[in-house]
Amino acid sequence: MTNTSALVGAPLLSTMTRLAVPGVIGALLFSTLGLIEASFLRHTGTDALAAIALVFPLIILCAMFSAGAIGGAVSGRTARAIGAGDENEASSILVCAVFISLLGGLLSWILVVQFGPNLYAYATNSETVQQAAQQYAAMLFPAITAFWLLNMLCSVLRGGGDMVRPAVVAAVMLVAYFVLASATIPTETNDLQATIQAAALSMVGAYLLSLLAALFFIAQKRQPIRFRLSAFRWQTLRSILRQGLVASSQSVMTVTYALVTTALFSRFGTDWLAGYGLAVRLELIMVPIIFGIGASLIAIVGAYVGAGQREKAISIAWRGIWINAALIGVLGLLLSLFPTLWCGVVGSDATVIAHCSQSLKIIAPTYAFFALGLGGYFASQGLDTLKYPVLGSLLRLATVSSGLLWVASTSSVESVLYLTAFAVVLYGVFVIAMLKFRAWR
């Protein structure tokens, strides 16, 4: 790795297409995992869907840390190291990524076991749903370290400009879950405990098999970034953690936002909890879809920054952000007009489907603003300018959290839906304005 990255100076359109297409495909495969899980669970009834809706934000939080936040810091720093032609730094980043994965997975498991039950009890009064959520988390999170590690290894690959192999890892996870769930999850019984147990074990199996695929790819002799313990640098570890922890605060706020809105809608009953849970699951699943293009931005932008071409990096970042917003905005408008395209697939109860559809009609048109804010966040990882995207997430969380002060079971459901929609619009506008007129001016 004596020369700068091949991404620097390459034709922009073809390079972005080459990186973004497999990135988006991999993200879509990852997103489909949540859809497939919901389709297997809907046969058991509302309680199973509601239980998974409580745990799902915690799983997505781990994904945000390992792939989007700390993983994004790993990708950005890897891209800058390759852009500067620093082989030892790239190897050091890989070693640090493995170390952080092991520690992060262990901490995630401990925190969910200790504090998860309190979150479930706060979100719903249904003891059945609480117990099902606890059972699912207790069986799944001992394997969460594998999930962390596979995401961080894929982050290193993405930082080096390789989007194909992470997409293959996502495909392995999807196929593994489908096969395992088809073989174990009961579809002709309403046994909630048996269904939850089989769903959790199927997901564990999918994590482990996809980790094997990631380890296989990272160990290839043709892989330019080699794992060498002797390359470890404390300075590299501190730098990754500094940027990664700043980015992680956004991830915490994003998932806290989902938990707050879930708590708000649970005040209207289990049917609304399940219905909105299906709708918000779509929003959270959009995070890795936006990440599909965002990961290519991190690689390209970071490479240009490492090569000393910051102005060019900013220009590329803006193009990627607007492409992201356009794609997600069109999808949001489509789902607002035809919400049953999503709700009818993942829901089985007519009331739950109706609540999910009502939620999407109001919230889905704001997805373009969600993509603007999150696109700015990913581009900022390549440019190391995360301050304003993080503040934007705080503003979004504070806006929707205000509902905790006045929302009651007698409140209008539409008023809560419009509150969440306004918070998303505010988030996107704030992030873009601050990057445009301050950080990237």
Strand content: under 5%
Report the C-alpha radius of gyration, rounded. 21 Å
What low-confidence regions span 5 or more consecutive residues with pLDDT below 50?
none
Number of domains: 1
Order of helices and strands: HHHHHHHHHHHHHHH
Which term fits the overall shape? globular
Report the helical percentage. over 70%
Terminal CA distance reads: 33 Å
Note down, in words, how this protein is organized:
With 441 residues, the protein is an all-alpha fold. It has one domain. The chain contains 15 helices and no strands. α2 packs antiparallel against α8. It is globular and about 60 Å long. The chain starts with 11 loop residues before the first helix and ends with a helix. The model has no long low-confidence stretch (mean pLDDT 87).
Give a short synopsis of this structure:
The chain is mainly α and 441 residues long.
Overview features:
441 residues; mainly alpha; globular
Topology:
Elements: H1 12-41, H2 46-83, H3 87-123, H4 127-140, H5 144-159, H6 164-184, H7 192-218, H8 234-266, H9 270-306, H10 310-337, H11 340-346, H12 350-363, H13 367-383, H14 387-401, H15 413-439
Helix pairs in contact: 1-6, 1-9, 2-3, 2-4, 2-5, 2-8, 2-9, 2-13, 3-4, 3-5, 3-8, 4-7, 5-7, 6-7, 8-9, 8-14, 9-10, 9-12, 9-13, 10-12, 10-13, 11-12, 13-14, 13-15, 14-15
